[in-house]
Please model this.
Amino acid sequence: MKKRLVPTFELAFEDPSECSGFLVWQITNLWQRRMKIVLDPIGLTHVQFLLLNALATMNKTIDKPITQMMLANNTNCDKMMVSKVLRLLEERKYIIRKAHHLDTRSRSLLLTTKGMELIEKATPVFIKAEEDFFKSIKSKQKSMDKKFKKIIKTNRKALKNSLESNSSESESE
Model:
């Protein structure tokens, strides 16, 4: 019989409930499962809904063509993943991707009527699921959201600096 190995080094955490990253990961998994349950019947994944909704929001607030890069930056998503999801949304005729009028390497994004109708159908379902999911912190949700935004801002900046640093290091090699 093999002897059970016991680490002799410091572990990342002894108690998962005292590790913020682990808690965020658990919340994210629960949230994604909840979104799958409510969005599957509509024919959307969580990412598809978020990208469509973000595109619709950007169309309301930005008075110029929205590009894939703008959408990826706005949602803090990987640009390759955004491109793949948008390709699928285009195949389903929810959006139109066309060459940008100033930069032919960029793609401008347009919602179709079918895409707008889908967002309109999915939005109340999403809102209800979000309200249900976060009801246990309802009284503190605004302050929690403020803290989440601070974490996002700080880490977005750190990630950008890290990527730029890695890029300049690889260029100098």
Remarks:
- The radius of gyration is 20 Å.
- The chain is about 65% helix and 5% strand.
- The beta strands are 66-67, 95-99, 107-111.
- The helical segments are 20-39, 46-61, 68-75, 79-91, 113-133, 141-172.
